[in-house]
Write a structure and sequence with these properties.
The chain is of the alpha+beta class. The chain is 32% helix and 22% strand.
């Protein structure tokens, strides 16, 4: 284990390009370690499970959705203990490191607001046309599901090809996430970073390095367009004082996009 005040952004992005990410053992742990799971969760962007009940919530616009309007607050909310999660892996080093990535445009958040309060959402890292979901949280019923639906719609509209969810959970599986071998994940990731679609890879495609000679693609990578979704509907006004903040199109736009691609 190594101690950091924050992880150098170049090192952090290089780790993501190789399928590795940092975690802490607890919110109070001053150190971080690098993780490379044997099994990896991804959510195919054409496989999001939009249930009737979730579609109804999205279309109702019960939550006001923004992106990049409260990134630090979102990370802090994800780091807070809850009844179902007494501790988290997000320590001060993680928070400082991802804030630096956000300032550089390599991290984004999706926020759900209810009655003027931050009720849930998610944040993650972007590299090329791959998005690495880091954490999501609900402080109101369905908030994290709505945030993930808006994220998937935004990634589809912006040309992303891979949504990494790190570890499978029943919650993510109910929304369409699947689990694959890390080697297969790396093949998909490298394909996307190299400009491919990361889709069907064929038998044996999971052997990265060795037999296939696949190596980590070199930057610069073709990036997705985070703002493309806003052109599909009348976006809500950005939050004052947040230059990069955007609203999100009305729920019916999100539902239509997810219905067409699922």
């Amino acid at each position: 284990m190594k101690h950091f005040e924050s992880i150098d952004p170049a090192l952090l992005l290089s780790a993501y390009a190789q399928g590795i990410f940092p975690m802490a053992d607890g919110a109070d742990d001053p150190s971080v370690h690098w993780v490379e799971p044997r099994l990896r969760a991804i959510l195919p962007l054409d496989g999001f499970h939009l249930s009737r009940s979730l579609k109804k919530v999205i279309v109702s616009d019960r939550f006001r959705i923004t992106t990049d309007a409260a990134f630090a607050d979102m990370v802090a909310l994800c780091a807070e203990p809850a009844d179902d999660r007494p501790t988290t892996w997000i320590n001060p080093v993680i928070r400082a490191s991802y804030d630096r990535l956000f300032q550089l445009g390599h991290a984004h958040s999706v926020e759900c607001w209810l009655d003027g309060e931050l009720a849930g959402g998610l944040y993650g890292v972007t590299l090329g046309r791959a998005f690495f979901g880091e954490s999501m949280v609900s402080r109101a019923r369905d908030a994290s599901k709505v945030a993930l639906a808006h994220l998937v719609a935004r990634l589809i509209a912006g040309g992303w090809k891979l949504l990494d969810c790190q570890f499978i959970t029943p919650h993510l599986a109910s929304l369409g996430a699947i689990e694959i071998r890390q080697a297969d994940y790396l093949a998909r990731l490298y394909s996307v970073l190299a400009g491919g679609d990361g889709g069907a890879l064929g038998a044996g495609a999971g052997t990265v390095g060795g037999a296939t000679g696949v190596s980590v693609p070199s930057p610069p990578f073709v990036a997705g367009d985070w703002r493309a979704l806003d052109a599909l509907g009348a976006a809500t006004p950005p939050v004052l004082g947040a230059d990069r903040a955007t609203g999100s199109p009305p729920g019916y736009v999100i539902a239509q996009l997810l219905t067409k691609t699922s």
